[in-house]
Design brief:
The complex is a heterotrimer of chains A (490), B (130) and C (440).
Chain A (H helix, E strand, L loop, with lengths): L32 H4 L17 H12 L22 H7 L2 H4 L11 H18 L3 E3 L5 H19 L5 E5 L5 H8 L3 E5 L9 H7 L4 E7 L11 H10 L3 E5 L19 E3 L20 E3 L11 E5 L4 E5 L16 H37 L15 E4 L1 H7 L4 H11 L6 E2 L8 E4 L7 H15 L3 H5 L12 H6 L11
Parallel strand pairs in A: 2-3, 2-4, 4-5, 5-6
Antiparallel strand pairs in A: 1-7, 6-7, 8-9, 10-12, 11-12
Helix pairs in contact in A: 3-10, 5-10, 6-7, 10-13
Chain B lengths: L6 E2 L4 E8 L2 E8 L1 H7 L2 E5 L6 E2 L4 E7 L3 E5 L4 E6 L8 H5 L8 E5 L10 H11 L1
Antiparallel strand pairs in B: 1-2, 2-3, 3-9, 4-6, 5-8, 6-7, 8-9
Chain C lengths: L7 H11 L4 H4 L21 H13 L8 E2 L12 H7 L2 H4 L11 H18 L3 E2 L6 H16 L4 E5 L4 H14 L2 E5 L5 H4 L4 E8 L9 H10 L3 E6 L10 H4 L3 E5 L15 E5 L12 E5 L5 E5 L6 H4 L12 H39 L3 E3 L8 E6 L4 H10 L2 E2 L2 E2 L10 E5 L6 H12 L1
Helix pairs in contact in C: 4-13, 6-13, 7-8, 13-15
The chains are: A alpha/beta (490), B alpha+beta (130), C alpha/beta (440).
């Protein structure tokens, strides 16, 4: 029973003369605007925004929200995104005035609690990563990658070395090459072996004194821990290069292994994934980075420090080796407050338990799924695995079976896995159940998936059958982009 | 132009060279095979008239919904014309890739590269790839 | 643990199905030498009651703006946030969803993105908007990178000194790495000397960091004459009354969108607004929602122009950004919807009137003088003739007044100056109190 009236575009709901606010009368002596600002710098009329009342706004957006699948409403095994439960206590706390109503330029005296929280979070992330120097400033994982590569660039400049290349395996997330280019490096793709691990020979061929950084996602996007990582680190370090660990998959190894202990020099966390976000419909996230003590001076500033003498926390701008700022103000603090709550809720044993349960759930789902879908990279995984629908092509004649399965899952009320990523698996379905799902849910999902792969090709190809819209035309959208509403288009 | 009369890059561009007012003018496009592989083209970026292009190097881009593919020039020279209307009518590439679907004309400055394929050799390559 | 569901008995069943003897065995692909042999050195777990108490203790050590009267701005403003925004943005269907990879079950988020993009175009007068970036500062640097990509001039960019100092620092950081020269000019009058045929773009802020409104029309003419692009960082609230940058000839508009329905949050997460002229749409970084139809011909929305993005373009991408600030774009969309044209005009006008009243009252005192006679919107600079800005701020804090932001940390020549912001929330009585306390 979709409310098709209320979910028209907000512009179509507009009626001239309506308003959703009533502002106070001006209590200071008023002057015509032109007295203060020259007429040619003023607008001739107010912006052409929609005119709607508060109840209309509530009904419109509430109805829109019901058109989304979300973690609160559906099982959402989107691989590489760690769609775990978002604790409500964290939401409530982060919204308190004592955290949410602080101006970024308030005096340090007046925000000691906030600074203590951020200081402790730096310490905790340093401990979890095994990399003690932490900057909380980057606003997202990709932003953290970029900041860390800038740190590497500044470090090599300080050493007087010209290193031009950043290397990463072909299974890497697209942000790795993009960040490398933005940080001024050339990017070199290193092959993966058939078993998903880095091809060491190909790595050796490409390593040299021009190697700046090797970026590795470990556990990888295939959900495998590359046990060569220490060896890779040794090879790269021998050449004077640095190891960057993409922390996208930290949910698998909390309290079990620390990147700093297996050779990483730099890494980022995705608190919106690992430390329960939330994901906010695509953001905000945060991308704190952790580095070795050697690299500490180059971190973005400011960080938070504690002064023994004055017994107070303060914003530390470091020395002039810092790369400077990558974001205005302190960073995505609201996300960091939630991450702090999450880590404090779990403690050391609880965090380890998170990874154990995430890995148990993924392996269990794998054990069920491999009965009817190809899983090219073996019987075991870490927190996620990638199944392949490639064999289904031959069986059914479907051209894009992974896409068709994904669409059919919607009919059964499940959010599909990540499809067609990583690029190294054909017709990939990347499943990450996370630790906050029960065995019953995993069983139900596996059962549905099994049903689907045995359904007639036509059923899959024409899916979804039950959603309010079905298979939008993406070609038309990209050929003649309509990216805003105008009265004429309707 | 007939597909059989053209020369091809292994990157799927075709080229046809003709004498015109004493100049060698190369007409460049992409093959029917490439168009089919790319599926659902949505956008094309043309070079600017007057710019120089180099054999084997990028001169533009073509996009489908889910991929971007660089276009590599089969010849070196100066761009003297581009098919202005093409980006707005990308279906032309499906219906008539070797005539109406031409992309640019280049005044050739060097000899043609030796590694261009004739139609038979190109067909063979596509057969292996497909 | 509060959020993990499987009972010990279920765990055993699952292990049996997997064919593993223990959970430890599932981690056997991690060589023992790489495994942590001890517990993490972290404080012990807290239940919800203890966590709440602990966080209350931390929160108590912060003085919230709601307990004082805020005249601080400098890029982060104490505007009013209508209750409808919190109500809607705290719906789990919005904040626990993710990037709309499956459009059939993400029409809510996609339509919000499309509405947000339209609202931003209506507000700025630009042709196209993306679905948002991280914050105002990173939006500014992304716009400059985009301008380099469009103009194919990578040698230098020009930035006015009156752009937010932290935005300028971000630009310095990014461009130092890629080797593009950043020329900072002290005023619009000096712009001409800095421009040449190698300049990719000029970044200006209006109202600028000191609150002054710039003449964007003439700046655009000047910048375009050099073949460069004009990038302008705006205060979205000011567009209730100021000429839209799109009407003034600006090529790329960026803004900090915090003012549009987001609290101060100690600086983030905020909202990076970015909009441009139609011809640049395929160079615009970040996510974009587009309208299309489904198989049945129903109007619907999808993520579009995805080939611009890093997951396809990889090392050739112009930006590495792969998220948008979805939840805060939602807040801005709700804010602009409830405000409407009249509300936006009224809010901007209240800011304008109250800021001018405050400036007049303060400069009427012997101790203070205006630093400039240029037109300003909701923020202005006063000079303390006694050169004791920090003393003043401290004194004001004793009266629960956040009197403004000291400028000396960024502009040593303005170490005796205070930047004061007055939003629609401030009353005449509060302004009078500020004047009284600063003047006493």
């Amino acid at each position: 029973m979709r409310n098709t009236h209320a979910t028209q575009l907000i512009f179509e709901l507009s009626t001239a003369g309506r308003s959703g606010v009533n502002l106070p009368a001006c209590d200071v002596p008023e002057q015509p605007r032109e007295q203060w600002i020259p007429a040619e710098l003023l607008n001739a009329e107010s912006p052409e925004l929609p005119e709607v009342t508060e109840p209309e706004v509530i009904r419109h957006f509430t109805n829109l929200s019901t058109l989304n699948m979300s973690v609160d409403t559906h099982y959402y095994p989107l691989g590489s995104c760690t769609m775990k439960y978002n604790p409500k206590r964290n939401e409530r706390i982060a919204g308190w005035d004592g955290f949410a109503q602080l101006h970024p330029y308030q005096s340090e005296d007046s925000i000691q609690g906030m600074l203590q929280l951020l200081f402790e979070l730096q310490q905790m992330l340093g401990e979890i990563s095994g990399l003690p120097a932490v900057s909380l400033q980057p606003a997202a994982g990709a932003h953290g990658e970029l900041a860390a590569l800038m740190v590497a660039s500044a470090y090599f400049k300080e050493l007087g070395e010209t290193r031009t290349k950043v290397l990463a395996p072909d299974s890497a997330h697209g942000t790795n090459p993009a960040s490398a280019r933005m940080a001024g490096f050339d990017f070199v793709t290193i092959r993966s072996q058939a078993d998903g691990r880095v091809d060491l020979d190909h790595l050796r061929e490409n390593l040299g004194d021009d190697t700046a950084v090797f970026m590795i996602t470990n556990p990888s996007t295939l959900g495998l821990f590359d046990d060569q990582v220490q060896q890779i680190a040794d090879l790269v370090h021998e050449q004077g290069g640095l190891i960057y660990l993409d922390g996208a998959n930290m949910n698998a190894i909390l309290g079990i292994a620390r990147p700093g202990d297996f050779g990483a020099d730099m890494m980022h966390f995705n608190p919106h994934k690992t430390f329960s976000g939330p994901h906010g419909g695509g953001g905000p996230g945060a991308g704190p980075i952790c580095v070795t003590d050697t690299l500490r001076p180059f971190l973005p500033n400011p960080t938070v420090s504690y002064c023994q003498d004055s017994q107070a926390y303060y914003l530390d701008t470091g020395d002039d080796k810092s790369i400077g700022r990558v974001r205005s103000f302190f960073g995505n603090v609201g996300v960091l407050v939630r991450a702090y709550c999450y880590i404090r809720t779990h403690g050391p044993d609880g965090l380890k338990r998170v990874s154990e349960m995430a890995v148990l759930n993924a392996n269990y789902l794998l054990s069920q799924v491999k009965e009817f879908l190809d899983v090219p990279h073996g019987d075991r995984c870490m927190h996620e695995f990638v199944a392949s629908a490639e064999p289904i092509k031959e069986k059914t004649g479907l051209k894009q079976p992974a896409m068709d399965i994904a669409k059919r899952l919607l009919d059964y009320g499940f959010h599909p896995p990540t499809v067609y990523f990583p690029l190294t698996v054909h017709e990939g379905l990347m499943m990450e159940p996370t630790e906050t799902e029960s065995k019953q849910t995993l069983d139900a999902f596996a059962e549905v998936l099994k049903t689907i792969v045995n359904e007639p090709a036509e059923t899959l190809q024409s899916a979804p059958h039950s959603t309010s819209i079905r298979r939008p035309d993406e070609v038309q959208a990209a050929r003649q982009p309509i990216v805003k509403w105008t009265e004429a288009t309707d | 132009m007939n597909a059989e009369d053209l020369l091809y890059c292994d990157t799927h561009e075709w080229v046809f060279v003709a004498e015109q007012d004493g100049q060698k003018i190369a007409t460049v496009g992409i093959s029917a095979f490439a168009v089919e592989q790319l599926t659902d083209l949505v956008y094309m970026e043309l070079p600017t008239v007057g710019t120089t292009v180099t054999a084997g190097e990028e001169f533009g881009e073509v996009e489908s919904v889910k991929a971007v593919s660089p276009l590599y020039s089969p010849v070196s020279g100066t761009v003297v014309a581009v098919n202005e209307g093409l980006p707005d009518n990308l279906d032309t590439l499906n219906t008539d890739p070797y005539q109406a679907g031409w992309i640019m004309k280049v005044e050739v400055s060097d000899d043609l590269p030796a590694n261009l394929l004739d139609h038979a050799a190109y067909q063979k390559q596509c057969g292996e790839a497909g | 643990m509060p959020y993990t569901y499987n009972t010990p008995a279920q765990q055993d069943e699952m292990l049996a199905a997997i064919g593993a003897a223990s959970i430890d065995e599932l981690f056997s692909s991690i060589p023992a030498s790489m495994q942590l042999k001890r517990a993490l050195d972290l404080p012990p777990a807290l239940g919800e009651i203890e966590l709440t108490a602990h966080m209350q203790e931390l929160a108590r050590q912060n003085t919230a703006v709601s307990q004082s009267t805020c005249f601080m701005g400098a890029g982060s403003y104490d505007h009013f946030v209508p209750a409808v925004i919190d109500t809607l943005a705290s719906r789990g269907e919005f904040y626990t969803s993710y990037t709309p990879y499956q459009p059939e079950v993400s029409q809510g988020n996609l339509q919000v993105m499309f509405e947000y993009q339209t609202l931003i175009c209506q507000l700025t007068g630009m042709d196209v908007s993306n679905a948002s970036l991280y914050d105002g500062g990173s939006a500014a640097v992304e716009a400059m990178l985009m301008a380099i990509s469009i103009t194919r001039r990578s040698d230098k960019v020009v930035v006015l000194e009156s752009v937010h100092p932290e935005y300028r620092q971000i630009i310095e950081t990014y461009f130092a790495t890629i080797g593009t020269e950043v020329i900072t000019v002290s005023a619009a009058e000096q712009l001409q000397d800095a421009l040449d045929d190698q300049t990719a773009a000029v970044l200006v802020q209006s109202p600028n960091f000191f609150g002054n409104v710039e003449d964007l029309t003439s700046l655009a003419e000047q910048v375009h004459a050099a073949g460069a692009l004009l990038v302008c960082s705006v205060d979205p609230i000011s567009l209730g009354i100021l000429k839209r940058p799109g009407d003034a000839g600006v090529d790329i508009v960026v803004a900090e969108g915090q003012s549009l329905g987001t609290p101060l949050l100690y600086g983030g997460p905020y909202l990076g607004i970015m909009a441009c002229r139609e011809e640049f749409v395929r160079r615009l970084p970040g996510r974009i929602a587009g309208q299309t139809v489904d198989q049945q011909g129903n109007r619907c929305w999808v993520l579009t122009l995805q080939t611009r993005e890093q997951h396809i373009r990889r090392e050739k991408a112009t930006s590495n950004i792969c998220t948008n600030q979805g939840l805060f774009a939602l807040r801005a969309a709700i804010y602009l919807s409830v405000m409407g044209p009249e509300g936006m005009g009224d809010v901007a006008d209240l800011c304008l009137q109250k800021a001018h009243y405050a400036q007049q009252q303060l400069t009427n005192l012997d101790r203070f003088e205006a630093v400039s006679d240029r037109p300003f919107f909701k923020e202005f600079v006063i000079r303390d003739k006694e050169n004791d800005v920090n003393g003043l701020l401290q004194k004001a804090e004793d009266f629960n007044l956040l009197a403004g932001v000291a400028l000396g940390r960024w502009y040593p020549e303005l170490e005796d100056c205070l930047l004061i912001a007055v939003t629609e929330k401030r009353t005449k009585d509060e302004i009078n109190q500020l004047v009284e306390v600063l003047g006493s």
